Input
Amino acid sequence: MDKKEIGCNAGKIWQLLSNNANWSYDELKKKSGLKDKELGAALGWLARENKIEFEKEGDELYIYLCVNIYIG
Output
């Protein structure tokens, strides 16, 4: 896996999350077709860019897009 592949996978995840719903890790994995390492790297990429947020409910991890509003 290289940076280009991770970036492409991050784009896939970004597209899935664009419906503004909270997705569970398992839902994202199933829908994207990515393996754990690939999904983890893609989520790390998006998290580093402050594009996504994580929320834990019980044992389940949910991922959703950040909404950044800049006024200036």
Summary: The beta strands are 23-24, 52-57, 60-65. The chain has one domain: 3-65. DSSP finds three helices and three strands in the chain. Residues 24 and 47 are 15 Å apart (CA to CA).
